[in-house]
Specification:
7-stranded mixed β-sheet; two-stranded antiparallel sheet; alpha/beta
Length: 257
């Protein structure tokens, strides 16, 4: 009867696909009418968190920097509102997170709040912005603190240069009041006066990639294609990871492909 149907209904698994959001620690608000120096995008700990940790507040500052101050290139010109509240049409647009990038941001905040290194293997669809988000986090960390070392490892030189171009766009489009002087700029490396560094390499270089300076963050791009180059990609990846300051709470490893 109806009571049996009711009991069966109660045994059905939950279809609340938004359930993981209950674990999220940050709120994000967007006001595109805000004009510089007001911020269009704001991040803050959820109201239920009475005494947010310093690392959670650090995540808020990082995400606000990325979304309010960095720009990305689009394939086709689009309409957008710039940081001064003006309507624009072009290909260099504010880096406002999409749905996938929002999930990654919340995930990073969860790890940081527990003072855990962030290590993720991300099987991704194309054009979802995982590489762009990872580069944005690395760039923001480099400008936000001293001696932060970021390595981008791709399956070939062309792929590395293409992704590193995102960080070059960040650097070129950043407001002069926020820019940090570069101590050295090369085709494959940026070194700032605070000793933070971003550099690129391809997996075909081999384990020599792991013999450089101590790393803070490693971004492995298109990792599923590493073996295509006829080298021992697994051993090379291990060698590179051995250069990571793995016990540091700001240590980040992202494998995406």
């Amino acid at each position: 009867g109806s009571s049996a149907t009711s009991r069966r209904a109660k045994r059905q698994p939950s279809r609340n696909y938004d359930a993981p959001k209950t674990a999220w620690l940050l709120d994000r608000t967007v006001d595109l009418t805000a004009c510089y120096p007001e911020r269009q995008v704001r991040w803050a700990p959820k109201k239920r968190i009475k005494n947010p940790s310093q690392r959670l507040l650090k995540a808020c500052r990082l995400f606000e920097f990325i979304e309010n101050e960095l720009s990305i290139s689009t394939k086709e010109p689009v309409d957008y509102i710039d940081r001064y509240g003006k309507k624009r049409h072009g290909q260099l647009v504010p880096f406002h997170f999409n749905a996938v990038q929002l999930i990654l941001s919340q995930d990073l905040a969860l790890s940081w709040n527990k003072s855990l290194p962030f290590r993720r293997l991300i099987p991704k669809g194309r054009q979802l912005g995982v590489s762009t988000w990872t580069q944005g986090v690395g760039y923001g960390m480099c400008l936000g603190q001293s001696d932060y070392k970021v390595a981008l490892i791709a399956h070939d030189d062309a792929g590395a240069s293409e992704i590193f171009g995102t960080s070059r766009t960040f650097e070129k489009s950043l407001h002069p009041d926020l820019a940090l002087d570069l101590d050295s700029r090369q085709e494959s490396k940026m070194v700032w006066v605070n000793r933070s560094t971003m550099w690129i390499g391809s997996i075909k270089t081999g384990d020599g990639l792991g013999k450089g300076p101590r790393l803070s963050m490693i971004h492995f791009s298109e990792a599923a294609n590493f073996e295509d180059k006829g080298i021992d990609a697994a051993a090379t990846a291990v060698s590179i990871q051995n250069a990571l300051a793995g016990d540091h709470p700001d240590a980040i490893i992202v494998y995406e492909s």
